[in-house]
Design brief:
Elements: H1 5-50, E1 55-60, E2 63-67, H2 69-75, H3 79-84, H4 97-108, E3 114-122, E4 128-140, E5 143-152
Antiparallel strand pairs: 1-2, 1-5, 3-4, 4-5
């Protein structure tokens, strides 16, 4: 009987506090890693948005929240006008609206968190064009969003 109950309690408390410190350190390291990864992704998306070669957009709440010039030109709209549209529904060819809506909602729910789909868009001037969209679900301002690339397909 070298240890009193108080000694045992003190050792147990110290062990518990040490475990908390180690867990906090692990969580802080993971947080720093996620912040770094987020910064890399944000920079990559900024570069995509500035690319004249590929259309890029961010979609949230059934509307565009960011588009680059190439994406806007595919739809035949100025960027600011495209982002002011209350919904993307009018931009999708009527025959493809249901399937595109389903794919977008499924991606936003994370089941699966990516998309690769070909469909028809309706340009501002009424012309219909076939496009391919590839994207993935992300979080933007604590809400699900989709970051995508879009390009016209020619037959």
């Amino acid at each position: 009987e070298h240890f009193t109950p108080q000694d045992c309690e003190l050792v147990e408390t110290a062990a518990h506090q040490t475990a908390i410190l180690l867990e906090n350190d692990r969580l802080d390291a993971r947080s720093q890693q996620l912040i770094y990864q987020n910064q890399i992704h944000e920079e990559y998306f900024r570069q995509l948005l500035s690319s004249p070669f590929v259309g890029a957009f961010m979609f949230q709440g059934n509307k565009f929240i960011q588009v680059n010039d190439r994406c806007a030109s595919l739809f035949g709209y100025p960027r600011d006008e495209l982002m002011r549209l209350p919904s993307i529904a009018s931009l999708i060819a009527y025959e493809d609206r249901a399937s595109v809506n389903q794919i977008l909602q499924t991606c936003l729910a994370g089941n699966p968190p990516n998309l690769n789909h070909t469909f028809h868009i309706s340009r501002k001037n009424g012309q219909v064009a076939k496009v391919m969209v590839q994207g993935l679900m992300t979080q933007f301002k604590s809400r699900p969003a989709i970051i995508s690339l879009i390009d016209e397909l020619f037959n």
